[in-house]
Amino acid sequence: MPEARRFELAMSPHVSATATTRRVMTDVSIALLPALAAAVYFFGFRVLLLTGLSVVAAVLAELLCLRFMKKPVNIVLDGSAVVTGILLAYNVPPGVPWWLPVLGSAFAIVVAKQAFGGLGNNIVNPALLGRAFLMASFPVLMTAGWWAPLANGPAGNDSWDQSGIPSADLLEADVITGATPLNLLKQTYTWDTGATEALEGGDSEGAEALRRKASGVRAMLSSEQTRLSLFLGRVGGCIGETSALMLVLGALYLFARKVLEPRLPLFYLGAVALFGWLFGGPGFFQGDPLFHLLSGGVILGGFFMVTDMVTTPVTKTGRIIFGVGAGLLTMVIRRWGGYPEGCSYSILLMNLATPLIDRYTKPLAFGEVKKND
Amino acid sequence: MSLAREFVKGIYKENPIFRIVLGMCPFLAVSVSVENALGMGAAAGFVLVCSNFLVSLLRNAIPSKVRIPCYIVIIATFVTIVDLIMNAYLPDLHRNLGIFIPLIVVNCIILGRAEGFANKNSVPAAIADGLGMGLGFTFAMIVMATFREILGNGTWLGINLLGEAYTSQPLLIAVLAPGAFILMGFILGFFNILDNRRKGGAR
Amino acid sequence: MTEVVKLGFILMVVAVIAAGSLGFVNGFTAPLIAQQKEQAKLLAMETAASTIISDGSEVSFDSLAIPGLANPYSSADQVLSVVGVYSEGHLRGFLFIAYGRGYSSTIQTMVACGTDGIVTGTGILFQQETPGLGANVTNPERLTAAFNGRSSDGLALKKDGGDIDAITGSTITSRAVTLSVRRGLEAMEAAGLFTEGGSSL
Question: Complex ipTM, two decimals?
């Protein structure tokens, strides 16, 4: 027998990658953990419960679907359901009732993933579709469950407003306490519009007051203090999106393990910064790119959701188009949309455009003649 | 081909919504409440029976070259009659169904039955077919509306089923457009599973 | 050629019969529909007027032509027209319809106010906002009850520097309704319609 083994032949390919779905998903889960630690520190142990429930619901939903469709049940061990569960929990506010992430995870797995044929066949990112489902179904809960950082956390301290600006400063500026920094920014846009309208109506005094208020809040949002808060995660927001520092740490781990391809996140973040500077402020070229990068879900989305291998283009040019398009849409929604944050919807929309992008950027196979269609 | 068979087939075997998948526009748009579903089902059913009757009656008088314009005129006439009568006698329902009453004209079920059945069958068979298809459409509307109204509003035909706690925080997406598409997918899937089981059993 | 004529003739016959039957149905439904509409309008006006005159005395309406009344609503078919509410020969208040562009529809609000410009009651006549969110505007407790007893002063959402609480999750709808009512009142005030205690009209 040993004789025979010596002459064993194998078909090509002879070089194979060590990456398996399970390994990649394990790495992604590990990379997401630092952000959870930050969330526990700032919002309290409840976020652990929410994230845990979300993961359990996602795995259970996957198991049930596999059983129902008579597929091998051990597919669930690939870990993709765990990642979906974590990402969904990271995309809900810390104050939501416990059943909300459970419902969202179940929807993400059943409708967005398994109904399309499971991992690899889903058209859009399951966790993001789960979030969109929750936004459409429970808009009040999804936009009212913000918690002030540290108020409920183990450190216990309530001198910070939810927006990451010391409460005293906000009171001084006569601002109704905002839920998140992006909510505050959205408010400044409405004040701008109000000022323009007041000026047209001949009320120059009122216009001046509104304008002063808007620029005051903008100055606070661009202050060193707010930037530090945003960087550390000391701001109101969804469970896993606030701490840029921890998310970047996780992303660095993924880069080191060669799980992440840098093109997608770099072009996405670059586009957000560019368009944020271009039209994210009161006028053109007056936006604060750093604020737009650090606030909301941009960092979480940029490293962990824009990079979803299944729902993003496979070609290099395609990935650049995807990243820039998602960044542009994010900023358009932030500036002119109905919601303060556009990160998740922009990625969902670009997910839908992925087949088209792939079609037009796929290089020709050797010998193939370009068709004029 | 007995009349009873022509009548029954529309309800399940050839259900216009779940089987033939025609008339999706009013089906998805109006099925937000059971009350609307009943009104829409009755209106579409009435038009269906009347147009089937007339098309079958005139099937030898109308030359085939101009049959489609003639059918459309017949259907449009009945739809306008329903629209006017509903507006006069049931103004509340008319307000709820709004634009979807005039849109019955382009409901594919009605033209589909005129073209596919009534113009080659006798008057009684056409009426039986129209009644069956109308009932099948109404049945499908009610099934969908039941899911959407209970999930999205906590009520059924206006009766509060799930209590105040649910009604204040319902699964809102069920009454929105995306919810209609998602539920439609589940319902079609369910009927396909049912069908597969039956075929498997027969084999 | 003869076939074309024949086909055309058949089509014409079908169309003529259809038109005839439609005319017949329209003949007896048209007055009913008109009556229905008139009744609905009158009912809405009477409900609104009852907030101005609550002693149950006879109410009459009269459209007012007011010189110098600017139209605060942008569109040509959304015109601010003011109806005077009379009781026993005296002008007691005004009714008008406010148009505000909400999230997915133009919301029409019937507004009743006294001759001093204080809102006494409102009712949503038409809206197609998102069910469960903006559509909650039809429940007066959620928004419009807060308008009662106010003049245009401070009639704005708290987010916009006023005193009105918006419906949770439906800022756009709330803002549209509040702003449309306020603009109507302001236009009437600018036309000199309101007086302290009573009107000269």
Answer: 0.83
